[in-house]
Amino acid sequence: CGRGPGGCRGGRTDMALRCAASLAAGRQPRGPRREGTVRWSSAAKASAVKINEKASREKILTLESMNPQVKAVEYAVRGPIVLKAGEIEKELRKGIKKPFTEVIKANIGDAQAMGQRPITFLRQVVALCTYPNLLDSPSFPEDAKKRARRILQGCGGNSLGSYTASQGINCIREDVASYIERRDGGVPADPDNIYLTTGASDGISAILKILISGGGKSRTGVMIPIPQYPLYSAAISELDAIQVNYYLDEENCWALNVNELRRALNEAKAYCNPKVLCIINPGNPTGQVQSRKCIEDVIHFAWEEKLFLLADEVYQDNVYSEGCQFHSFKKILYEMGPEYYNNVELASFHSTSKGYMGECGYRGGYMEVINLHPEIKGQLVKLLSVRLCPPVSGQAAMDIVVNPPVPGEESYAQFIKEKESVLNNLAKKAKLTEDMFNKIPGVHCNPLQGAMYAFPRIFIPSKAIEEAKAHKMAPDMFYCMKLLEETGICVVPGSGFGQREGTYHFRMTILPPVEKLKILLEKVKDFHIKFLEKHA
Question: How does it assemble (predicted)?
Fold first, then answer.
């Protein structure tokens, strides 16, 4: 500090703090200008350390002072089991020996991380939008250039790097509306009811934010399926709403039963105000595809009970089982007649992340919201404007999902070949997974009708349940942790999605390549048999 130890003891506080900082950094403070090294007395050092301790005040943000709603949030898909998988990967890179050579992350539906190739046409259009100089290149097809020019014309300064309207680029919203009309056999869609989003999750969270209100017994209740995708329980916790569980029927291929909806609703009315009903179709993690009759029953129930419907339809392209077909809630609602179509409030969601595209990283998505009160529409746009706009590259990717090449265009043949290859491959893997799981003693897997996950029920012996309790773990978390540690396979315990008391499951994606998936399933089989023998 230029004044030596005596200067710190008798000088100004700021100089003392600088001396303390020098000590903390392991540096010797400068003393008077003389030959030799300045030595601090032990008393001077103690004084400096004491000052430094006083300077380090308590943190403002601690676990006790943080937002309790955020602390209550849980997201099993990237929870403790995934953190453990990351630790094991680091150990493998350091050369620490394990009974396996790699961690297989079958915990999340990230198609391209599992080796799925991107759709060429989608990447071409996004590349052209990102670097418009490529529009002069003969390496790109004209139909891709045409779409890229149209998207860029909708951007400020003809650049993907500019902000867009909060609701999204207008021409892309028009393309989404046209897609919905084609998909639903001519049911009209208004671009003004389309909101481009940062993946489907962003839209779901936004709608829940404006729906949740009240306090005490009038606090909004949100009905969600069990098992559910943990985004819903996480958003409900964050917003301090009331989660109302309704159980899917595992014995009937995870079907949705309106009597179960009614039970859940009537019980919830005693402690909250249920006004939102969430449906995931095709199901995640359960893979069921709703029948037309089931959707009609749900819509009638929502109309009768005055519930706002949320239809999570991000897996609408992922339907594999014969006799199953995707029906959008919007289409069925329209066909049920004006009494329903003009009154039931419905928000539907789609994304670039799933389907045949697997473009998770672009974070592209949209929601269509119908029968919204005009004043609430303004409030929704205001809420969305706080985050300015969704990623513009994600908006461009979403445009190709809803506006792909059509017969007669030069890219059509390659596009349809790639799309059908992905979907046929997924159908093959869905059947393979179901069959192999059902050959394992103590495991039962319902048909994987759609989506991209298996959710098998597993038998866990009472001895293993007691051991799990001793480790303060849910039994299926204990099972999944052992599976990870002994095989390197990372799956998510069913307790992270919700399940009936006394039943145990795990969710596993079917996305790995077929040969790798076979190896994975064989490893699960061997592990499960050994697990049963050990804990018999």
Answer: Homodimer.
For 22-35, what is the mean pLDDT? 49
Say yes or no to pLDDT of 122 above 60.
yes
Per DSSP, the three-state class of 268 is helix
Contact 277, 469 (CB under 8 A): no
505: helix, strand or coil: strand
Cα separations (Å) of 43 from 18, 27, 91, 177, 443? 17, 17, 46, 77, 70
pLDDT at 14: 52
The residues with which 508 forms a beta bridge, in sequence order, are 454
Sign of CA dihedral 206, 207, 208, 210: positive
Average per-residue pLDDT in the chain?
Answer: 89
C-alpha dihedral (191, 194, 196, 202), degrees to nearest 10? 180
Q: Which domain holds residue 531?
A: 68-115+413-535
Domain boundary, last residue among 402, 434, 457: 402
As given in the structure block, the two tokens for residue 99 are 């009974």
Both 393 and 437 in one domain: the answer is no
List Cβ<8 Å contacts ≥24 apart for 186-195.
187/330, 187/331, 187/334, 187/335, 189/330, 189/368, 193/368, 193/369, 193/370, 193/372, 194/167, 194/168, 194/366, 194/367, 194/368, 195/167, 195/168, 195/366, 195/367, 195/368, 195/369, 195/380, 195/384
* Domain boundary pick from 402, 434, 463: 402
Look at residue 28 and tell me if it is in a domain: no
- Flag whether pLDDT at 8 surpasses 50: no
In angstroms, rounded to a whole number, what is the distance separating the alpha carbons of residues 135 and 145?
6
**How many domains, the chain?**
2
Average the pLDDT over each of 41-45, 56-60, 366-370, 497-501 and give the range with the smallest value.
Answer: 41-45
Q: Which residue has the tokens 């030595």?
A: 39
DSSP letter, residue 450: B
> Is 39 inside any structural domain?
no
pLDDT in tens, 178-205: 999 999 999 999 999 999 999 899 999 9
Calculate the CA 213 to chain-centre distance. Answer: 24
For residue 487, count other CB atoms closer than 10 A to its CB: 18
Q: What is the mean pLDDT of residues 375-400?
A: 92
Query: Is residue 23's pLDDT more than 80?
Result: no
Query: Per the structure block, which two tokens stand in for 327?
Result: 């029906």
Cis amide linkage into residue 227, ω under 30° from 0: yes
